[in-house]
Amino acid sequence: MSNQIIFTPEAPAPIGPYSQAVLAGNTLYLSGQIALDPETGELINENITEETHAVMKNMEAVLRVAGFSFSDVVKCTIFIRDMGQFGTINEAYGQYFKSNPPARETVEVSKLPKNVNVEISCIAVK
What we know:
The chain is of the alpha+beta class. It has 2 helices and 6 strands; from the N terminus they run βββαβαββ.
């Protein structure tokens, strides 16, 4: 089985030596997404709700180009800088998983790339 590198200009280009996602068989491993505007490269972080929605839209773009959707996501990892924002992030995140939400962990970290407040990665299976 060979791995297929997934890339779309509809999501931010990687800011390091990694791929937006890798498809291995019927499993998609999506790298952590942050709230970068894919067209301008500017951060979308006026508030944590807006930032979380931007992250989810970037994830959605990568999922879509690989032929997946949020309904195929089985696991997410959320990294946040302030656990005090958990409820607000959770509310925005939950709008993308209407039923049968994936397994997940949320971890508070001291710093994230480009000093963002939230980064989310996922695994999806067809």
